[in-house]
Amino acid sequence: MATIYDIAKIAQVSPMTVSRVINNKGNVSISTQQKVEAAIAKLHYVPNDIARSLQSKHMKMLALLVTDIMNPFFTQIARGAEDMAHASGYQLMLCNTDEDIKKEAAYIKALISKRVDGAVIVPTGDYSTESLHSLQQANIPFTLLDRRIDGIDCESVVGDSEKGLQLLIDHLVQQGHERIGFINAPMHISTARLRFNSYEASLASHGIALNPQYISESHFQPGKSARQPSFLSLPENTRPTAIIAANNFIADILMQDLHKHGLSVPEDMAVACFDEFQLPTYVQPFFTTVAQPAYAMGQQAAKYTLEQVEDKAASSRRQDVMDVTLHIRASTVV
Description:
With 334 residues, the chain is of the alpha/beta class. It has 11 helices and 12 strands. The strands form 2 sheets. Strands 2-1-3-4-5-11 form a 6-stranded parallel sheet, with helices on both faces. The protein has a 6-stranded mixed sheet with strand order 7-6-8-9-10-12, sandwiched between helices. α6 (101-114) runs parallel beside α7 (129-137). The longest helix has 16 residues, at 72-87. The mean pLDDT is 91. Residues 2-56 form the HTH lacI-type domain. This is LacI family transcriptional regulator. GO terms for molecular function: DNA-binding transcription factor activity; transcription cis-regulatory region binding.
């Protein structure tokens, strides 16, 4: 493996000059720089990141922990975070936790061991507290994304879950629905609590009483079967005429359940959800959704982490709530 001493010998300069060219530091003439670069190309030299990190105290590496990279929402988040990291001269390590607290804890231990510079984390839920505390004790800065954890003092970037649920309820009521069901995520996830509270408050704002029979809980775990909502078995004149799913994954499973019951969307039951589906450009989207700005959320969270890494963060913790957009489509309009 070539070293800077090999490069210096071929370019007929000092190792210090080679170092200046590689690190883009100091005054080096154009002709000398060209000789060094030619020698680097000839020897196929690759800088030793570990050695450089010992000098700069930075590995130039961020980590991104998401709960399901197959979900288009998190795919867009990853793209936004990676673009921000790349533009700042950092690489991004992707970790997929599958909503598994043990897998998340193992990844966080690995990040501490590898001494990544910082992390953007979509936590699996409230039980992530211990692992996040270990990151803080290791002085590795991080930003929570999409979900917050009580008792964790850090930056965060989330979508406006409360507004999103209210927009969906308002739309469905405008379509004439009063029996509106809700399939939520587990309540140990902060967004699930926010969306449930908004569901209840938004119904009340329209004079509609909360019906416990219309509420079901599912999960976000890929590959794991979900319990069929009990309200689908209610008599036709008492079951919901519209259902809100906490995300696109749950909405997809719901569509399969409705098909098994011989129910058509939106004729028999309207369906709306949080987050968009990844579709080919020539396919017309079907679901009414509340879209969160996933790409921008990923960018912002990575930006906040980078600012902490480089000691450029604001004096107070930033808790961003990003706006959401209602897209009305065929799944709720007869």
